[in-house]
Protein 1
Amino acid sequence: MPHSVEDIEIQLLLEALYHQYHYDFRHYARASVKRRLIQARTQLGFSSFSAMQAALLHDLSTLPRLLNYLTVQVSEMFRDPAYFRALREKIIPHLRTYPSLKVWVAGCSNGEELYSLSILFREEGLEQRTMFYATDINPEALRAAEAGIYPLDQIRKFTENHQQTAAPTSLSDYYTADYGRAAFDKTLRERVVFSDHSLVTDAVFGEMHLISCRNVLIYFDRSLQDRALGLFRDSLARKGFLGLGAKESLRFSKHAEAFADFVREEKIYQRREP
Amino acid sequence: MSGAPFQAVVIGASAGAVQALLRLLPALPGDFPLPVLIVVHVPPDRDNALVSLFREKCTLPVKEAEDKERAEPSTIYFAPSDYHLLVEQDGTLSLSSEQPVNYSRPAIDVLLATAADAWGAGLCAIVLTGANDDGAAGLKAVAGAGGVAIVEDPASAQFPTMPAAALAACPTARVMTLADLLIFLPGLVAA
Ligand SMILES: C[S@@+](CC[C@H](N)C(=O)[O-])C[C@H]1O[C@@H](n2cnc3c(N)ncnc32)[C@H](O)[C@@H]1O
């Protein structure tokens, strides 16, 4: 329900983005989208959202710059260590019983969560039987994820987090540091498929044993959260697991029935029998 | 007293927050007709302990704000630590882990600006004690949207910097002591 002229302009801008490029932000949580578009307007030097819309439609270089505002790329390795610890202690024992595994990191950003999982699976001896799918809609983020290089000043936090997951190894076993950057071991991505995939517009692409989708759904409105959760339900194998972000839950979803709490505090769910 | 009908109260507080809120929140009656949304600057790596503290002291139910829930009347919501709290135009709440604003997450500016957008003239916003200038831009947005903007009197606030910065950014804001607020708040009526 647009209120002001500005809100109408934003709605039109998002329509243009969808019709021209098939990026659909129309049902993202609008308050946050608006804040980030206001930042973009100032920092990219547009006088109005209408001017931004004209540039978006007529100048190809506008899209990637705008995408970096419309998608939130804040992430960390082993973000919320208790989540990864719960995966290690409560989910891995179940996954061990399968001869082969598929893991989907939906909304992988620059790859922090993906590398966290591939390290955890290596530590637990499951990496060789696992295929990882790391997906996002931001092409720059996907490229960064594939490169696996992070500023050294983030590594201390990543290391602290990793240690809190009851890790049997040290994070420094997995990267080499120089020139202020840490490059993660490329063997960590040997079993990873990086791919452009939108939770809003794309479909099921495989049968997963674990889907980890953290801090993506909070940027969606409720209808879009339901769309994504329906996609997860349809993508999970029998008794497959779904992990969400610390402040995300199925409570308000129409798909709540399709999942059972598995590790309640960590927002890890298990698909119920259909 | 303010006779005009309201839709919500939002409060931002930083250093000195607990003591100030301990005076204000327990005094709100159980039939206080508005949602109360609060951002307090808390350290990121801790669970927001404010909820359990105030739950014990308040007549009104106190909870941590959850993503996509509706802001209900007669309820006090605290932003979770390490997440921004935003209000959508339909009066539901959103959380976000976007970059800190004014070095803070949650940031008072983010709550106030989005609440101003959602509730306009139906909003009453209060900037309490604190040692930084978060909330100044947000309070200006509240006043700009026709809402009632209030700062704790810097002369009596435990940490005057934050309310003073808000007053400087929003000179039309009303200046109230905690004692004034104790009389003003219970007089607010719902739209
Ligand atoms: C805040 S990051 C989360 C990163 C990581 N999962 C974590 O928890 O730290 C959100 C990511 O979701 C991606 N994203 C946004 N909309 C998406 C969509 N429709 N489908 C897939 N990914 C999306 C963004 O590009 C961004 O990389």
Note: Residues A 71-75, 79, 106-107, 109, 112-113, 136-138, 141, 198-200, 214-216, 245 surround S-adenosylmethionine (CB under 6 Å).
Protein 2
Amino acid sequence: MTLTDPAPALGTGAGQVTDRRSARAFVDTHVVPYADAYDRVGRVPEELIERVAEAGLWAPFLPPGSGGAGMDMVTLGEVHEEVGRGCSSLRSLLTVHTMVAWTVQRWGTAAQRERWTPALGSGDVLGAFCLSEPGAGSDTSAITTTAVESGGGWVLNGVKKWTTGGQRADLFLVFARTAASIGAFLVSRDAPGVRVKPIDDMLGTRASMLAEISFDDVVLGPDALLGPSGFTAGMVLTGTLDLGRYSVAAGSLGILQACLEASSAYAAHRRVGGSALRELPLIQAKLSDMVTDARAARLLLAEAGRLKDAGDSATLMATWIAKYFASTAAVRHAAEAVQIHGANGCSPDFPVARLYRDAKVMEIIEGSNEIQRITIAGQAEREKTTCP
Amino acid sequence: MSATAKDQILAFVRERYPQAEIDASQDIFALGFVNSLFAMELVMFVEKTFELTIPNEELRIDNFRTAESMASLVAKLSADLAAA
Ligand SMILES: Cc1cc2nc3c(=O)[nH]c(=O)nc-3n(C[C@H](O)[C@H](O)[C@H](O)COP(=O)(O)OP(=O)(O)OC[C@H]3O[C@@H](n4cnc5c(N)ncnc54)[C@H](O)[C@@H]3O)c2cc1C
């Protein structure tokens, strides 16, 4: 297995990913054959990052003229599903970049948008999302990174951990405590006082180039703060996490679809006791549940995407539910996919071992399972069937 | 101030918190209802229902304390839009 992609590079303007079909073709050509190798070396190569840029995949939802193609959220979900089907590490890089690009577009001033969105859209600048800290994960109110107003700007101090893409990103979206609330700050990687320490050898999404990022007296201009201060500053984080959760839901569905495709192919040719695995009722039960859950997850995701496109606030809960369902289904079915493959499923020769490890991560990031369930339970007494 | 806007906003808040008795002049922050998820839902609801964008500088707590203050904000932003 090799990291090098022998397929010809896409010409400028040609081979743009605009929908599920083109995303599937891109992923099958440039990602699927190499995903296990990325996993083993613990990074995705620069060449792939460039190919993603050529395909217009980094932030296609940005408006045309701001580095994007105005892609709607339903389609974006489908595209992220396809990328997740091929490689969760690449999808993770896409997720955090999406969060940064969207946040700048949604909350940035005209000057901030003008400065950052074209480069975020083209992928010339890659973004990463810095919220978690060594002592604060689920409980975001426990973050201790501070941004103190000074000389009209800000001074940033603290440590962020588990930053996906941190080893590679050019621009960090950092959440820090201010006098009033929690603020979102744009910090260039090359700002003095920023240090990046790689985190390797994770259980899953091993090629997503995680890092711990330290900020020691990093001096920021007034234009580093993104969005309003005060009570609504929390909304910047809520919105950013909502889109990240949507992308992770899509990626989880991609893992599930990959498990289904790998398992049905394997079950068709592997023979035991004179019959193909797929003819055995216990194996059929596993395959039927994969098919059913993949369809259900896809519907939940499409509904969350449709509500996003409509600007409907119900998208927030719909996204929690889609992510909860898709991530737990991915874990369940990845375990069964390994089971169907037997010893081969535990070996590096089949992708299901990677899918199994990657799936587990989906239950922890962008709101762990427990946090999902606490939040969704809040919906219980409002949950009524509506009659048109 | 539009009575309709006030009623629509109040209905949205009541739907989210069916167990609570809230009127249009009650401070929903003081009642402890507002977390960042609900704040985001409120802003999205107002923007979609009244077809406007709330600029960052109007995202102040005083504009969101009560259904009345939100309806005033809607009236102001709608007037700005009409004048533009
Ligand atoms: C591969 C990977 C990539 C990541 N990428 C990023 C990134 O790019 N940026 C970023 O900021 N962070 C990132 N994270 C961090 C991630 O967001 C956190 O791991 C996650 O929020 C959980 O926080 P924690 O790990 O500190 O667990 P904790 O918050 O310490 O929780 C530990 C356990 O307790 C449970 N728990 C917590 N609260 C409750 C409760 N109230 N009731 C019941 N159970 C509870 C949790 O669900 C979990 O099972 C990444 C993590 C991983 C593994």
Note: The helical segments of chain B are 3-16, 36-49, 67-83.
